[in-house]
Amino acid sequence: MKTQETRSTVFLFLTSLIWGFSFVAQVVGAEYVRPFTFNGITFLIGTAVLALVMRVSAAKKDVGAACSRPPSYRKKLLVYGLICGGVLFAASNLQQFGVEITASAGKSGFITGLYIILVPIFGVFMKRRAGLFVWIGAVFAVVGMYFLCVKADEGLGGLTAGDLVLFIGAFFWAAHIIVIDRYGPRVDPLHLALAQYLLNGVLCLVCAAALREPFEPAALAAAALPMLYRGVGSIGIAYTLQILGQRHVAPGKAAVIFSLESVFSALGGALLIHELMTGRSYLGCALIFAGILLVQVPARKPV
């Protein structure tokens, strides 16, 4: 069991690393391709990558084809895939629209990282006790978000539409962790990953067509590298590692590891696209990160 937990912890760390640098790919890709088109293509790339891995992997005998399972299993997979895929659809598209508006990998990563705080707060409504540190951490995070997103001379009017979209998206990322924790162990993790990727990719392209997003070959070619990183790395590999990792790691510990995503997003933005932040912005990032860590302090058990 200890070996499984260690391996799962490594999976979640790699997930955070890949996701963090994925914000850079999303910022660059947003310069050429609109959000639904970007996500539709990248999620279908992720679907193809995972399907290929399942086909050629030595673990194929253990995974098995979903169509060979009993009807009850296929029904569960369909229901869970719709739930997890639907939440992922909302989260990923809100994030991409927010990234497009803010054009900042670092800011997008830290605002999205607020989902780590929302997970235990959501637990209150699921009859799970939230300790004092959860509420202190939430205050730190809200204050940090203010410093990160609002300039000193602007007040609350300095909040942009992109900041608000990313913040709303954080609620859906929190919900995604919860539904993966609930439904992931009930079916094969690779089957569930494939189902939610395929659903998300198809829904995104349907929305792109309905909204008549531009589909220009030159723009797609310019965004090819970011879309490949997002599709192969962030979706095909990282989301699958998330589902595999959460099978043997408690949600609280997983949330601590996922908090590193915001650090990697800022690091990637600075190294790869030369993003610069003010001292006020760095203070905001520090407060958000402190809040994220405070939320993970175990609550004292009643005597």
Rounded Rg: 19 Å
**End-to-end distance:** 30 Å
Strands, total number: 0
Number of helices: 14
Briefly note the structural class of the backbone. mainly alpha
Helix/strand order, N-terminal first: HHHHHHHHHHHHHH
Q: Rough shape? A: globular
* Count of all domains: 1
Largest pleated sheet: none
Descriptive overview:
77% of the residues lie in helices and 0% in strands. It has helices spanning 2-30, 35-56, 60-63, 71-102, 105-112, 115-124, 132-149, 161-183, 189-210, 217-222, 224-245, 251-258, 260-272, 279-295. The mean pLDDT is 83. Helix 2 crosses helix 4, helix 2 runs antiparallel to helix 9 and helix 4 crosses helix 9 (189-210). By secondary structure, it is mostly helical. It has one domain (2-295). The two termini are 30 Å apart. The chain is globular, with a radius of gyration of 19 Å.
Quick description:
The chain is mostly helical and 303 residues long. The protein has helices spanning 2-30, 35-56, 60-63, 71-102, 105-112, 115-124, 132-149, 161-183, 189-210, 217-222, 224-245, 251-258, 260-272, 279-295. It has one domain.
What descriptive keywords fit this protein?
303 residues; 0% strand; globular
What's the layout of helices and strands?
Layout lengths: L1 H29 L4 H22 L3 H4 L7 H32 L2 H8 L2 H10 L7 H18 L11 H23 L5 H22 L6 H6 L1 H22 L5 H8 L1 H13 L6 H17 L8
